[in-house]
Amino acid sequence: MLNSVDSEGKTGGSRLANTKQQRKRVRIAQRQRLENLRYKSSIKTHFRRLKDSITAGDPDAAAQTAKKLTSTIDKAAARKAIHGNNAARKKSRVARLLSQL
To answer: Distances in Å between the alpha carbon of 99 and those of 66, 73, 77, 86, 95?
Structure first.
């Protein structure tokens, strides 16, 4: 498989980590990837809950969800799970949704 040609026309195929440090970096990257996915998933869940509470007309639940959502967005941006501009855009969406109440 080492001399095969992939879909982009490059030779080489897939290779495994050869050194101890490379294997460690693979483990760390996998752990970081899962952490980033958790942040992104929880942001989506909080957005869904915020929309539900707004459509139900519950301002207390909406405010509480918005506070938790904004905090989660800030933490994700600080950990570089999402880009800073993406975080700003999401926080703007939160404010715009809250103004609908």
So the answer is: 11, 19, 24, 20, 6
